[in-house]
Amino acid sequence: MLAAYLETVEARRKHLIVYGDPAETDLADQLATRNVTVEHRRLPPVDAPPFVTIHDEEGFVGALTLEDVQQLLDPPVIRPGSWDGIRDSYRTILSVLEETLFATLSRRQLLATTREFEDRAYRIGTGTLSVTFQSLSVFTDQADLYRTLGEETALDIHVYGRPDWDPPLLEGVTYHPDHTGSLSPFWCVAFDGGGDTTQACVLIAREATDGYVGCWSYDPEFTQDVLASLEEGGM
Amino acid sequence: MELPGDQRSVETTGDVPTRFGDDDFYRALTAQPRRRLLAYLLTHKQCPLDELADVLCGWESVTNPHVDADRKEMVQTELHHAHLPTLEDAGLLTYNRSDEMVTVESLEQPVKRLIWQSVQAEFQ
């Protein structure tokens, strides 16, 4: 199922067309790791504001001035508490920013994101945190960290991996042997936010020839789906 | 009789495009979307209807924060049924309805300049 999630995310890829002088914006560079393609088209030689049109798999979503898009890209990117009244184009740009799909991502970058999610779970201190490992022996290096997570929080932690090692019994940690090895190609971390959906986060990556391909998302529903799918063993 | 300077300059200007004496030409330019799409076409020579609708929506987003898929649909319908036929009648472009491709005619420099300036003036 993790493969299917990755495909779903990939299918949600957006397409931005920047109308204006390509030399005036580095939007394509700024969005290089996002789930989006960027194209440039020239405007007439008049002093008219550049703009961006946004397209998804169904076609045109909306248009924004380049200035508006640039403002949305400048940190901090704040996700509105409610989508009501937020126009489609803003929503789409924000979803592009929330959802990253990377052609290649190094192990180090994935580790950094994993640490960020684990740290988030630690701070919230409650909720479900699920993590997959290629095999449970890989978990060896992480055992101390998860001992702390289990002992110092009320987190419900689930660790998945090929059963090639007897991991230590840790408070709050449940092991799920992946007998078929169907999870082996994936790197997955998901935290449900512990009742605070704005804290939900999920990372799924698949090993590729030159690194990893995958995405992370702060979408609570997507996170919940991945957690449920892991729990059901529908790997 | 001595002519004022500005009148003299008109008389001494070189070739004046014949369409400057054509009512259809002025009628064609009396709508903002038509001037905008002509300006865009002059840069690209030829482009699909869909792209022209994108461009009009994009420029509209400068003043209208609610340009969405429905608005684009409306813009595209207006182009197809009203604006493009008007511009075609004035001999400024050709619109191929079967593949929805729009091609601008070869226009004289003063005509191009007028079209560009009309768009520039809007955003000043």
Provide a compact summary of the structure.
The complex is a heterodimer of chains A (235) and B (124). Chain A is an alpha/beta fold and 235 residues long.
Most strands sheet of chain B? 3 strands, antiparallel
Summed over residues and divided by their number, the pLDDT of chain B gives a mean of: 90
Instruction: Report the structural category of chain B.
Output: mainly alpha
Helix-strand makeup class of chain A? alpha/beta
Number of helices of chain A: 7
Low-pLDDT segments of chain A: none
Question: Would you write up a description of this structure?
Answer:
The complex is a heterodimer of chains A (235) and B (124). Chain A has 235 residues and is of the alpha/beta class. Chain A has helices at 2-11, 27-30, 66-73, 88-98, 107-124, 143-152, 220-231, and strands at residues 14-19, 36-41, 51-56, 59-65, 100-105, 126-135, 154-162, 173-177, 186-191, 201-208, 211-217. In chain A, 35% of the residues are buried. A 3-stranded antiparallel β-sheet of chain B has the order 1-3-2. Chain B is globular. Chain B is mostly helical. Classes of the chains: A alpha/beta (235), B mainly alpha (124). At the A-B interface, strand 3 and strand 4 of A face helix 3, helix 4 and helix 6 of B.
